[in-house]
Amino acid sequence: MAGRAYVFEDYTSSHSPLAYTIYDFALRATRIPLNAFVAGPLSGGPLPSPDERAFQKRAVSAAFYEKVCPRAAIHSVSSVGAPTEAEGSALIEWWVKRLSEVQARVRPFPLRLPARALPPPRPLRLSHPRHLRVVTLVHSAVVRNFAVLRPTDPAALYPPPRRPLASRPDATTDPHRTLAGLVAVHLRRGDYKRLAQWGAGYMGFNSHPSLPDRFTIPPFENITTKEDIEDYYLVHCLPSPEQLAARLHAVRAEHAQRHPGAAPLRRVYILTNTWGWFVNSVRKELVRDGWEEVWGSVDIVLDAAQTGVGMAVDMRIGEGAEVFLGNGFSSLTSNIVMLRLARGLEPASNRPHYPPFFAAFSAFPFFATSDQKKPSASARGLGFAPDYQGEHDNACDRLPAL
């Protein structure tokens, strides 16, 4: 857009000079090439031009940029005046104009979209990411776990076409085809107390106006204790197995109402960074509630190379599931929601862990009226009461962040 080459960096989990680090009692690569996760122009692939005679600048790696562009010849562009609080499209347009005005070499800079880059009712226009490709390594991992995913239509395992079908008469993959009967659930276990301190709302596309659920940031002027606000956030991002079972039960019933006569939701796949004991506890509750199969990230089989891109494998499964239940505060959930909406999947098939319905707010002192001092029995049963605080505290302390 600005006539500049995009500079991308490899995925870096640690800036240690060593090739590996210890994570979760196992060796983990500190750096993984970006094109092991995504393919296309974003990671250096060719960018088709609307004019075949036009010269298109391909993206280059940060290592290549540092080699061919001496620091003495680099011009830094100031971000002073950037509309950081505006919607995402306005911020991008500002940078395009700013970069177009500079004739010198430009130092790479990170373009950080604010968490409110997609404020309703003026979100970024969502269209097909036509040139984004699923990497062969990720696709091979999904196909390898055919026995776990068990699609009724094997074609659902294949990446959806990223170009409009009208321009691809040979295309045979329907972008609306999903892993029928499968609900993908993103359970990121980490420390979410900071969300309460920041008064955070849902991230990115998780607040897209087409989605059926909204998160209400508590009125801080009515907060009585720090624990109150932490309780409110934790039930939205760290549900217990019992809470999750209740939520999935409701999602299954709502899906059946929206699609009468269709095959029911029967299976669950859990995208998670936790250990097997937690997945087993969730599986026990869900099977008790009538789900036929419950699998998790710890159950799929990956080779050494596929393990390094395990998050991308989980994202591909989440994108292809018939229903996706995500963490509204997570960027990984936001990216999956973006891909699902761009494919044209039903917005109502994207749900958060907990519906922020107002009836449950009375379980918290800062939402309660003068005659509502204690959580109701129904709210306590759904996990909206502070009774679970100790359990969530322990989960935050002992489980690593993704």
Largest sheet: 5 strands, parallel
CATH C-level class of the largest domain is Alpha Beta
Rg on CA atoms, Å? 23 Å
| Uncertain spans | 112-123, 163-173, 356-402
Assign the CATH architecture of the largest domain.
Answer: 3-Layer(aba) Sandwich
The averaged pLDDT comes out at 74
Strand content: 5-15%
User: The CATH topology of the largest domain is what?
Assistant: Rossmann fold
Q: Summarize the helix and strand pattern as letters.
A: EEEEEEEHEHEEHHEHHHEHEHHEHEHH
Helical segment tally?
13
Span between termini? 33 Å
Number-wise, the strands total 15
Q: Percentage of helical residues?
A: 25-40%
Oligomer: single chain
Give the helix/strand class: alpha/beta
Sheet with most strands: strand arrangement? 13-12-11-14-15
What would the principal axes of the Cα set say about the shape? globular
Number of domains as seen in the coordinates: 2
Structure, explained:
This protein has 402 residues and is α/β, with parallel strands linked by helices. The protein has 2 domains: 7-106, no CATH class; 133-398, Rossmann fold (3-Layer(aba) Sandwich). The chain has 13 helices and 15 strands. The strands form 6 sheets. It has a 5-stranded parallel sheet with strand order 13-12-11-14-15, with helices on both faces. It starts with 6 loop residues before the first strand and ends with a helix. Residues 112-123, 163-173 and 356-402 have low confidence and may be disordered.
